What we know:
By secondary structure, the chain is of the alpha/beta class. It has helices at 4-36, 39-58, 90-98, 101-114, 145-202, 205-238, 241-249, 262-299, 308-400, 421-446, 453-459, 473-478, 490-505, 526-538, 556-559, 568-574, 602-606, 609-621, 637-641, 659-671; strands at 63-71, 123-129, 135-142, 405-409, 415-416, 464-469, 514-519, 544-548, 583-584, 590-593, 624-628, 647-653, 676-684.
Amino acid sequence: MNQPGAIETVSTTQHQHAWRARFFTRLQRLRGLLLAKWWIPALGVALGVGIQASRSITEKPSYVSTGRMIVSMKLSIPEGQLYTEEMGNFLGTQAALMQSDVVIHRAHLLVIAQNPNFKPQPVSLKVTILPKTTIFLLVGTGDDPVYTQKFLQACMEEYANLKAEMRTQTSDKTLSGLSEEVESLRKELKQSSVQLEAFQGSNSVVVLDQQGNSAGNYLTALNQRLAGLKSELELLRTMSVEQTLERRQQGGGVLPAPEPVADVNNSASSSLSANDSSQNDYFKAKQQIALMEAQKQDWSEFLRPKHPKMVALDEDISRRRRLLGIFKDQSSEQLQTLQKTLELQIANMERDVREWDAKCLEISRKTAEYQRLKNDSQRVQGLYDRLLATMQTLDVNKQINPESVTIYEKATQAYPDRVNLPMKLALGAVAGLGLSLLVMLFVDRLDDRMASFTELQELFDEEILAQIPREGKAREVSGLPLITQNGSPHSFVEAYRNLRSSLLYMGNGSRPRTLLITSSAPGEGKSLTAENLGAILANTGSRVLLVDGDLRKGVLHSRFGLDAMPGLTEVLADGKPVRDVIRETTIPNLWLLPRGSTTHHSSELFISQAAADFLKNAAMQYDYVIMDTAPVMAADDVASLAPNMDSTIFLVRAEHTSARVARAALDILYQRRVKVMGLVFNAVRPTTADYYYSKYSEYYRTYPGKG
């Protein structure tokens, strides 16, 4: 089972090979284009050199003046740090400013103003920066040496003036903005001073802090005492009478009251004093009862309960218990009175707390208001002082800050520009060559004629049966001779052998017996291919009938030195027997049926029953019937005849056949349900990268006698 990684690797390798083949094919096409159209680059070079030479002869002499400017040094003082420039692209910015339209226009005006007899003349200005320096080289080129020198000097001066104006304008704008801000701050400072004075006039600022401290301390003391009273009242409400009396007996009494509420506390103190005597009686009675209970317990050991002493002791205990209840009731009433007293104290103290809290808040508000007014006044005053100092420093900086770029060397006296004629001619030649190559590439992009096997594969999906090499130009004009075993070039013979092998082994099932050779247009080698294919097949011992089916302009008879008539026209039109018109050729096993008399009704003859009968009988008598016909786009003969043939071979001539025309011809054949076996790529340059037979000539030094 194939792994996905292996499949992907194979696909990538195939893509790389295809790309490499297209690349080398493109180079080969360009090489062929240069060999065929070599006169176009030569003409472009000649035109470029001629134009440059004529310009050098006719143009007026020009003069050059140079000058230099340098980035000046600056003293590092605080007053000189306010005016700064963007240093990231400083040199480029200054060079662009020197060549700006403003500087050039002002320079022309300055030259005319200083020299009224001068007229404005065009002068080109070029500014460069010397490598690894901060020096600007200014070069002026013009027709008048005096005007050129003065113009360059004026450019440097006007650049310096423009920089000074820009700095002055920036300073003036800054000062104007600062002045407006200072005036605004002055008004704000005056308003804050008036508000601060008005507050101080209505409030004693000196004693305000002391009042706030004393009021705060007193309020804190009131809150503490109020918390103690609330805690004591809560205890009285939750504890029983005995627990309360016990707590007071142990020394945990009510908190003493503060001085501001002395009247209420005096009544509470009197209640507490009376309560203390009741508490003492209560605890004394409780103690006596406990003693009597103990004495009763001791007497019970040796006295009976009815004993007079025991009865008297019980009565005494009962009396004291009743007295203890009275004491307890009195204490309960006193504690209730104490709770009410505490509630009055708490209410009175809460009122005092609210009053003092309001007083403290008022004092805090006034203190905060005073601090805010004071801080605002100080803030505005500080900002006002800083802006005044900045304005003074900016004014000083405007006077002492030097120019960032100054004139280093004045404009030199203009000298003639020594034109490098060989360099100009070389540039003209390069420009002409480049332009001519662009024209050639543009024309080549419009040309859809195929020059290589790879291009043919990219444009057509049909099988390519063989590549036939191109012979010399002289031989093409005079006509190539019929192929022979020993006399023809080996690559030519091997190409037709390759076509024969494709014919014998590429078909599915039985081999085609009737073959039609055609192309899209005249001059693509149909007749030559038909006769050579017939000769190659005849050399294998097969009986081959070569039929000239071009009834309009057929020439196969002349290739074999035979007469054209009678021929196929007489067979189809007059019913002449085929055996009477077939001719033997000089090649064994190869017979020729010439075209016969010319006719313009060949299409009607090919769709007749006579044509079908002829093909049927010929296929029965011969192993192969090869028919040469007219081009598809020239006449309807092929479209009428090809559907009756077993197979059709379509020729494409290298560097001659248009891809669009060939595709249209194939579409016509497919519409007629013609069986196109494949393409033959004819007249291929042997030097192309896709053609290999010519590279292995050592295999063809000797030929066998046959086949």
